[in-house]
Specification:
- The protein has about 325 residues and is α/β, with parallel strands linked by helices.
- The chain folds into 3 domains: about 140 residues, NADH:ubiquinone oxidoreductase-like, 20kDa subunit (Rossmann fold, 3-Layer(aba) Sandwich), CATH 3.40.50; about 35 residues, no CATH class; about 110 residues, no CATH class.
- About 25% of the residues lie in helices and about 15% in strands.
- β9, α7 and β10 form a beta-alpha-beta unit.
- The chain is globular.
- About 35% of the residues are buried.
Length: about 325
């Protein structure tokens, strides 16, 4: 199956690139979750760069002409100089660059490293872990001379960045990872040649909140106590937030189908903030403040103190892209 031009002649297939920066690889697996439809990807696109699946060297893509790649799905945050370099290269070579998934869009789980410092991370990884034996306190060096020649490693940045904090991004596809049917919607949109949304738009997602997709009954109860999911047997029919479980649904964009809440697990916020919300975490804090059943400051604080790991709860997927950007050391 190839794309046809208006004259009925076989047209050159658009070129597609995919890249995996600082992420777990779930977005790559999400491509495979298209199941049999994944066969239509190479049928409609010429895959020119996909390091996880193809033996293509960086030099190959660096040697391409500017704008020679029609679509690039870039997943992963910017953790190292290698990630940043490839972001800049793929921006130059791509007509349309998409921040694919939560890591590229908001920083996601790698971005929680912004709650600490590079020094602390290196200390934990190379010195302080119970299984590490490193009496000479050796750490990775960006440049090292060996008899065979000089070798190098990427620079490990102090802070994790999102893709749009490094280069201009045309579109954003949220999710950790994006749901397969949403990915297919985007592919169909590109293949059809139909009108595209304005640059900077979030695509492959809804325009409401997860609460609108959730089938649980919400009574908007006042909350006197917060609990973690393992501490209670939640009513399967009632809103988890009404039961005192912190659920990010009110501050998260729709598009996932409410899968987590449907399975009894609270929404963690991976589809990012809903439209017109700048900071997902602050938006959720505001939502909780409106339902806490207390009037005295000390009582309010006691209730809020029951929320374990506020940064990891409210900015689990969005710390680098939040108002704070990182926790100041």
């Amino acid at each position: 199956m190839t794309m046809q031009d208006v004259a009925g002649q076989t047209a050159t297939k658009p070129k597609l690139a995919l890249y995996w920066a600082a992420s777990c690889g779930g977005c790559e697996i999400a491509i495979l979750e298209l199941h049999e439809k994944v066969l239509e990807v190479p049928a409609n696109f010429d895959l020119v760069f996909w390091p996880v699946a193809m033996d293509v060297k960086y030099a190959d893509v660096e040697g391409m002409e500017p704008d020679s790649i029609d679509l690039c799905l870039f997943n992963g945050a910017i953790r190292t100089s290698e990630n940043e370099h490839l972001a800049q290269v793929l921006r130059e070579k791509s007509k349309t660059l998409v921040a694919f998934g939560s890591c590229a869009m908001e920083g996601c789980i790698p971005g929680l490293a912004n709650a600490t410092t590079k020094e602390a991370i290196f200390n934990a990884a190379y010195h302080a872990s119970p299984s590490t034996v490193n009496p000479d306190r050796v750490e990775p060096q960006t440049i090292w001379d060996l008899p065979e020649g000089q070798v190098s490693l990427p620079t490990f940045f102090e802070s994790v960045k999102t893709l749009d904090q490094v280069v201009d991004v045309d579109y954003f596809i949220p999710g950790c990872p994006p749901e397969a049917h949403r990915i297919w919607e985007v592919i169909e949109l590109i293949v059809s040649g139909g009108p595209l949304p304005p640059p900077g738009a979030v695509i492959g997602a809804g325009d409401q909140t997860v609460c609108e997709e959730c089938l649980r009954t919400r009574e908007e109860k006042r909350i006197k106590e917060f609990v973690r999911p393992h501490q209670i047997i939640a009513d399967p029919e009632l809103c988890l937030l009404d039961q005192g479980i912190v659920c990010m649904g009110p501050a998260t964009r729709s598009g996932c189908g409410g899968l987590c809440v449907g399975a009894g697990s609270p929404c963690r916020g991976c589809y990012g903030p809903p439209p017109n919300v700048r900071d997902q975490g602050l938006n959720m804090m505001s939502a909780l403040a409106s339902v806490v059943d207390a009037t005295e400051a000390t009582e309010i604080q006691a209730i809020l103190d029951q929320i374990a790991d506020p940064v990891g709860t409210f900015h689990r997927f969005s710390l680098p892209h939040s108002t704070f950007g990182r926790v100041q050391p």
